[in-house]
Amino acid sequence: MEKLNKFFKFLIYILPAVLFFSYYPVIGLGANGSMNFELSLPLLWLILFDVVGLVLMARKKIIFRHLRKQWLWVLFPAWLLLSVFWSLNFLRGLLTVGILCLIYFAGYAMWSLRDVFDNEFKGFFGKWFFGSTLIVCVWCVLQCVLDLAGVSRETSLMCEGCTYVMFGFPHPNGFTMEPQFMGNLLLAPIIVTAWLSLKGAESNVFREWFSHTIIFGRDFRKPLKILSPFILLFIFTATLFLTFSRGAIYSLVVGLLFVTVYLIVREKKTRNVVVKRVGLMWGLVVLSFLFTLNLQGLMAQVSPTDDTYSTGVTKVLHHLSLGVIDVRYSEEQPVENYVENSEDKDEKKSVFDGYVAGSTDTRIKLSNMAMKIWSKDVGTMFFGVGLGGAGEALYVNGFTYSAKEIVQNQYVSLLVETGVIGVLLLILTLVLVVRFVIKNSVDLLGLLVAYEISLLFFSGLPNALHIYLLPMILILISVRNLKKSS
After folding, report:
1. Which of 288, 401, 447, 461 is most buried, most CB within 10 Å of its CB?
2. Helix/strand/coil for 40
3. At what angle do helices 187-199 and 271-302 cross, to 10 degrees?
4. Shortest CA distance to 49 belongs to which of 96, 97, 13?
5. Residue 116 pLDDT
6. How do residues 358-383 score in pLDDT, each as one tens digit?
């Protein structure tokens, strides 16, 4: 039993590092007309963790201890499972609900076996959490260097749309499928470190993470006691900006705004101190953005394309602002002349010269088409086309050229697949989550807000394991008295 307990704790320790390898390495198991069959490290971790958790709970005879009182939590996955039976894509729906059930059980196992979360555990988890994030951030920078040096994508692991060819500068995807997932993986580390910088010496249990060594076994407690959150906040945020993922960046801004307002409103007695820390925190965020902006300009300058520092910087501003901020061309050099002069050069021209409206338009178009399918009859409005059936429904109705296409909005996707009933049960689940967080670890409410915003920009439930798994552990270990909690 003791060895199994240690292995259970070890699996939780390594989860932050495992989640960063969400796509590389990947085990391909083939494909059909509507989906690819693949096994990733996070998915293998999830299966192993549930098996270990099930064995431990069975030995302690606590498998069904909480289910009677917490039956409301089961309604949403139960409806998803039921919807599979009328799904237009039964296999995809079945695999999706299977993964979601594994995620639900993982959370249930963590809470039922929460006696493993002692002070020593929190310290070790902090090392894995911040240490693995820092290492992956370094890899993202190295990935850009490799791409600019002409190293093949097979070696650099750059996705096809991430190389310097697209904008004149690379935007890394780490070990994920695309930069958007890499950016989303950084939301939790950034918001946690932002909270640390705002709370200062009065911070909650997360402060304990910085009372432990986190860099190669050396004791950095004294210098890092004050500076660690700020140093890490700068590095993590700069890396997120480097991914160039608008969805992740927008989600981060909303999450940090929520944290800022929440703290200022709640901390009435120390409001002046909090306001100063808020200014410092946002100053670091802005500084990291300016640093990355200049770095992207420099990468554009040295890339094999005809881009310069100026074109790199102006492209970033134009794309991130959805075309609102357009300072790409001076009055002396209008757009027509710029294009002509660029074509005369021997260097390669990058694919995009600014805001890629097609990226936004495609997402909006897919959502609009999904809404048309949802509203075509009363049955679909209430019950949907079945979990996993959105891509097939789009294809059958002639809206897309492939059944592999997905709706780039998780909420719209769930609406068309599970109907109004599914969305209402999702809202109920979110209410339960928020109530639990407010009662036990309100410090992480800003992270949940950021994750909920991020789901507006992509879908594919099995592809976002970090959104479901990491907050579970962060919330649980932030509860001050786990063994006494009801």
Report:
1. 447
2. strand
3. 140
4. 13
5. 77
6. 888 888 998 999 999 999 899 999 99
> What confidence score (pLDDT) does residue 336 get?
43
Angstrom distance (rounded) from CA 93 to CA 342: 49
CA distances in angstroms from 274 to 226, 234, 267, 392, listed in the order given? 15, 19, 7, 51
Q: How many CB atoms lie within 10 A of CB 156?
A: 22
CA distance 132 to 152: 25
Cα angle, residue 42 at apex, residues 410 and 289 outer, rounded to 5°: 65
Q: Specify the DSSP element, H or E, that contains 155.
A: helix 153-156
Taking the C-alpha atoms of residue 293 and residue 287, their distance in angstroms, rounded to an integer, is 10
Q: What is d(CA 325, CA 309) in angstroms, rounded to the nearest whole number?
A: 17
Q: Which tops the pLDDT comparison, 108 or 274?
A: 108
Residue 455: name the closest of 424, 426, 425 by CA: 426
CA triplet 288, 293, 295: central angle to 5 degrees? 95
E-state strands within 221-349: none
What is the structure's pLDDT at 338? 39
Are 91 and 454 within 8 A, CB to CB? Answer: no
What are the tens digits of pLDDT across the range 21-40? 988 888 888 888 878 888 89
pLDDT tens sequence across 144-190: 999 999 999 999 999 988 999 999 999 999 999 899 999 999 999 99
Q: Tokens at residue 452, please?
A: 């909920």
Helices 221-243 & 246-266 angle (0-180, nearest 10): 140
Name residue 380's amino acid. T
What are the structure tokens assigned to 169, written together?
Answer: 């500068």
Average pLDDT, stretch 316-330? 87
Q: What is the mean pLDDT of the chain?
A: 84
Q: Taking Cα atoms as reference points, which of 202, 203, 222 lies closest to residue 213?
A: 222
